[in-house]
Design goal:
Subunit structure: Heterodimer of an alpha and a beta subunit.
Largest sheet: 9 strands, mixed
Bound molecules: adenosine monophosphate
CATH superfamily: HUPs
CATH architecture: 3-Layer(aba) Sandwich
Cofactor: AMP
Number of helices: 6
Domain Electron transfer flavoprotein alpha/beta-subunit N-terminal: 23-211
GO molecular function, one term: electron transfer activity
Shape: globular
Distance between the termini: 59 Å
Structural class: alpha/beta
Oligomer: single chain
CATH topology: Rossmann fold
Family: Belongs to the ETF beta-subunit/FixA family.
Strand content: 25-35%
Strand order of the largest sheet: 9-8-7-10-6-1-4-5-11
Number of domains: 1
Length: 249
Amino acid sequence: MKVLVPVKRVVDYNVKVRVKSDGSGVDIANVKMSMNPFDEIAVEEAVRLKEKGVVTEIIAVSCGVTQCQETLRTAMAIGADRAILVETAEELQPLAVAKLLKALVDKEQPGLVICGKQAIDDDANQTGQMLAALGDLPQATFASKVEVAGDKVNVTREVDGGLETLSLSLPAVITTDLRLNEPRYVTLPNIMKAKKKQLDTLKPEDLGVDVSPRLKTLKVEEPAKRGAGVKVPDVATLIDKLKNEAKVI
Ligand code: AMP
């Protein structure tokens, strides 16, 4: 069984992003970029399924600028077998990515697509769901456990008040939650090996997809600044402050 793992290049989670002065977005010039953390978990899960002998080939896919090649090389260093870059300088919104992925699913016929639950830049949390809808595929979002059994996959999801387990028939779309696994450390020999793995580049036109944006960002603002906190010496002072200063009790 083949697995397709979409990986997005995003601003590194340690970077404190700044809003551009004209409010048109955040400044990503000269900022460290990395693989979306939920996508690292997705690649790791695919590799674990391969190690269990359930999966035969892992294909990492990234849609975006030329530098997404670096993200794909990282995916291959974790253990993906080959990679596809759908290259475009156009701003890509989740629907456009879902359409590109749908075209690749038609081409590659994977048994599973494992996406991240959301990209930490736009926090859209839409692409996996849109892909499932476009491809008419079963979906299980926010997976915390994945078990392939024959032509089915059992996915445990964390929901309010407990765990829910779904059984999906393959092919299917899964999106990963934080507790699914802890991605392995990428070793230097694996980084070197990844350089030699196959990376194909396509354009959205090659897949017959129009990626032009459908949504317009009107304004991006910094959250309001919070005042500095104070340390209180004892519980009595805390209660006094909550009563008389903050007036919350
Ligand atoms: P989002 O819907 O933007 O929050 O993204 C959810 C997931 O879709 C990500 O974790 C990735 O697995 C995938 N995805 C989104 N955008 C891209 C992209 N440009 N290239 C590859 N995968 C993507």
